[in-house]
């Protein structure tokens, strides 16, 4: 974890009493109060200095740990200079509290600088590894932290382990997200490029640390996150991908990984050689510390499905005699090269996993909703203005949050590019996500799709164009909240294809049992900003009334 300089931290501590604490395991089903104080100042998580966002003085945001069944009350204090924010609890269904989803423009209006907001919700019938992150335009993953929902009784019934460790993986650019957004939405379109760094628990060392002119005096050598283990013990590693772009391959040399959880669903234990995890996804793996303990093991994270990866996604697995996790970064010298990636194979992880508890998958109760997506050129002829279209159009965020427009009765007057898809209560919805080659470069990309307010069955996918003879894969139908549409047949390393060519597809199924306004979107933040989203208004007549005093900052706020 990367910390604010001591002086700033002391000043900050004087100003506010911080409350971030989990409840002891035996006190389930109670209110846990969390205070998230969001600030910004210069930091250098990879030794290159820029303004970054801290929550309660640390980067990334502190882990929140609760028990399944708990009620959370989270107060978010926006102490940024000029940006409005909201905080989303990714994967938490928000059953009965659609206004607490923390999604700007959809479930609420963003919190202006200087203002506070309290979200209340229950974590019902859910347990496992989650994350929380900002959810306002390009700032999305500039604030991120782990959210761990314990269900010790259930977990210990199936698995044996002595301790837990959390690894939050993320990607990091040296320019600001504002500059990135201007490039993406501008004419001519300018892509954000690959990240300079891949961070583990918020730190790494940038390749040119020692030569970089912008070297920060605060973190002259950057550093590598250290995860300590005791010889002979077994650990549950909770691995969270909080990247804005990266589909990661994660390796631990000298140790076997056994997957037991995917996005809050327990799976039959499966030994894997390496982990593949997309942006917004989480896995738990069991690791036994049974290798020689006199040396460090370099864990690595690298991007897949892109032309190249930042080479510095390293962190250290270290044997120690103390059961306490040390958080001080290390400054060793990592291996000179990442483990060889081998060929990228669509769905390698997905095809390994089988849910631990078999649940009956209901049949769809309506026609399949096919959502085609591709890049489009929206500018005047010859000008290069690029957006992602999904379904009928490229999504445009409404100025007034959609849920608030539902209460005000103005949804019917919304711009067609912002309008939701209406879904009846308890409809079993099948969505077929179909990628197509767009206008940009003839290349297919991977897309991590995330649904708010519901989990879904990932019913598998395939290459090219879907056709009705392709049946859902129910054997590997793990309930999750983020899945991958794999790029095939024309990923970056293959021959570009003509516009319109099928680029891979995937099917998901969900039961629309949570009345509210919910987003389905690509978790690559650049794609989301370019319109790769759609929204559902689920059972509008059953949306519960808005709590009194719910803030509406539309007219005073900054968007
Ligand atoms: Cu993790 Cu809509 O986001
Ligand atoms: Cu995408």
Layout of helices and strands:
Layout: E1 2-3, H1 6-15, E2 31-43, E3 50-55, E4 58-59, E5 64-67, E6 71-78, E7 87-90, E8 116-122, E9 128-134, E10 144-150, H2 152-158, E11 163-172, H3 177-185, E12 197-200, E13 226-229, E14 234-241, E15 247-251, E16 257-262, E17 265-272, E18 275-277, E19 282-288, E20 297-304, E21 314-319, E22 369-377, E23 386-390, H4 402-408, E24 421-423, E25 428-436, E26 447-451, E27 456-462, E28 479-480, E29 482-485, E30 502-511, E31 516-522, H5 525-529, E32 533-538
CU-O-CU linkage is lined by residues 88, 90, 103, 133, 135, 280, 450, 452, 519, 521, 523.
Helicity level: under 10%
Tell me the overall shape: globular
CATH topology description of the domain at 359-555: Immunoglobulin-like
Strand order of the largest sheet: 12-11-14-19-16-17
Radius of gyration: 22 Å
CATH homologous superfamily name of the domain at 359-555? Cupredoxins -  blue copper proteins
In round numbers, the mean pLDDT is: 90
Distinct ligands? CU-O-CU linkage, copper (II) ion
Strand percent estimate:
35-45%
Protein name: L-ascorbate oxidase
Domain Plastocyanin-like: 39-153, 165-322, 410-541
Pfam families: Cu-oxidase, Cu-oxidase_2, Cu-oxidase_3
Signal peptide: 1-22
How would you describe what is shown here?
By secondary structure, this protein is mainly beta. The chain has a domain at 359-555: Sandwich (Immunoglobulin-like). Helix content is 7%, strand content 35%. The chain is built from five helices and 32 strands. A six-stranded mixed β-sheet has the order 12-11-14-19-16-17, with no helix packed on it. A six-stranded mixed β-sheet has the order 23-22-25-30-27-28, with no helix packed on it. β2 and β3 (50-55) form a beta hairpin. It starts with a strand and ends in a 21-residue tail after the last strand. Residues 10-28 have low confidence and may be disordered. The structure holds CU-O-CU linkage and copper (II) ion (CU). Residues 447, 522, 524, 527, 532 line the site of copper (II) ion.
